[in-house]
Design a protein that fits this description.
The structure is a single chain. The protein has one helix and ten strands; from the N terminus they run ββββββαββββ. It has one domain: Immunoglobulin-like. Strand 3 and strand 4 form a beta hairpin. By secondary structure, the protein is mainly beta. The chain has one helix spanning 65-69, and strands spanning 4-10, 15-16, 21-26, 33-39, 45-49, 57-63, 78-84, 91-92, 95-98, 101-104. 5% of the residues lie in helices and 47% in strands. Strands 1, 2, 5, 8, 9 and 10 form a six-stranded mixed β-sheet that branches. Strands 4-3-6-7 form a four-stranded antiparallel β-sheet, with no helix packed on it. Belongs to the transthyretin family. 5-hydroxyisourate hydrolase subfamily. Catalyzes the hydrolysis of 5-hydroxyisourate (HIU) to 2-oxo-4-hydroxy-4-carboxy-5-ureidoimidazoline (OHCU). Keywords: Hydrolase, Purine metabolism. Its EC number is 3.5.2.17.
Amino acid sequence: MSLVTTHVLDTANGRPAQGVPVALDAGGEGGWRTVATGHTDDDGRVRDLGPDSLAPGVYRLVFDTANYLGPEAFFPEATICFRIADGAAHHHVPLLLSPFAYSTYRGS
């Protein structure tokens, strides 16, 4: 299983958001570099996003929400920046999405 997983829920429609492109980026002195990419499945999940271990550091998930919400989306992208302190512990970072708001939390 990937160290980082995510789940996108469409809170306006009460269902999983299918087909959302997601990138996992690692931060560093040289800027951001993409570690892995994927798309949400029929259940709105990306289960295989990246390796099963990562170095401790700052990472971000970049969600191409315009791909799901359409070209006129108020938020064409949602970026969630987070810290990995334990490079062997699983990190689940969900996104709750609607046309004019989004939120996140540390999942399990």
